[in-house]
Model the fold of this input.
Amino acid sequence: MTMCVVAVPPSAECAAHSSGVGRRKPGKYPYDYTPGDDRRFAESGVGGTLRVLHGPGQGMGITEGVACRVQVLGADGALLDEAAAGKLGKEHRLRGTVPGDRIDVTVSAHHEADEDGELTVTRAVVLTGDLEDVVRFGVGPGWGEVAAVDAGELPWQATAPTRVRWGAGVRLRGARPG
Done:
């Protein structure tokens, strides 16, 4: 599964200083927050986190034919975050939010072989600040597979998205349907 978001990973210098601090075993989601990050998140007061997912695919930050955009708006309509395909994947905090905030998240995507076939979905969610609360949603004929791999319900397989089997969407932690 390929993933993209706005944030970038820390520099090599930062990574060298924090390489042994609270890290999960490498493998499943190397750019997700660690248990130590989760503890700091809980103390920060931020409402939730966002990660853009697209695929199914073979790695981080490579779109492999899936073009996606994500926009996050606050209840007042102010832009809180934007993401576009091609950014290295990382789960990141939704800055400027607090538990109880209602946000609207829009995912727009298409397979590069079908630019006229763009699909869009918008969902309202309420941020809870509890990282155990997870909302996933997206578009595309393969979105169910992308979401199931992300949730650990299906094993990851090295495949590339195709015109009839692709998906793009988001995973929000600290959120419930609103």
Summary: The two ends are 27 Å apart (CA to CA). Residues 2-177 form one domain. The mean pLDDT is 76. The longest helix spans residues 35-44.
